[in-house]
Amino acid sequence: MTEASIEQITANLASVRSRMAAACERAGRSPDEVRLLPVSKTFGSDTVRAAHAVGIRLLGENKVQEVQQKYRETHEELPDLEWAVIGHLQTNKAKVVAQLASEFQALDSLRLAAELDKRLRNADRSLTVLVQVNSSGEESKYGLDPEQVPAFAEEIAQYDRLRVSGLMTLAVNSPDLTMVAENFTVMTELQERLRSSGAPGTWDDLSMGMSNDFELAIEHGATTVRVGTAIFGTRPGPDVWW
Ligand SMILES: *Cc1c(COP(=O)(O)O)cnc(C)c1O
To answer: Coiled-coil segments, which residues (predicted)?
Structure first.
């Protein structure tokens, strides 16, 4: 596998950050409002080390086995590196996330919430979680229907090891930016609804936008953008990320 070099990551990061700043400017937002979450999936531990060397301290991964392996390979030498799990999680793998992740962005069922809470209690930890929403309505996508989220927010409030901090979505993968923007708008409207109804949890974090659409996401209120390819380069093999 080709790993990303420090030079490549440095140059790509500078470019992504300046595009983020320009998008913030267009939207009349402060660049401090938007967090960049670099996504290292499919790259190996050498890329993780290079990312750390350029100052990255939080990396996104979508598969449990993969994050577990990279954690094992790098945790001792890079103890301040944190992991955000951003992909669908099976209940039987909740334990791993409870042990090593600092953030989980794909909460989409009560069963998983209960299991994470239990595992976190055993590990004496807590976890920042974002509720994943299927904003495009595509069958292939994970996440709750937007209509289900207010009731879900009430239910998960009982799990005190989960710090509910916002919403995450994957917009439709389409060159038609109008369609993509519609998905983002579903999210900002939902966020507003949760806030104004006083749903338990803080709903400040809106994780949406990836390499192809992060500028549009920022213009639509994203507070976290998850960027892989534009930082680390093209991934080898088929891209299965939902
Ligand atoms: C892979 C992945 C990303 C980043 O995708 P890029 O197009 O490479 O920027 C973002 N979010 C999730 C959930 C992913 O799996």
So the answer is: none
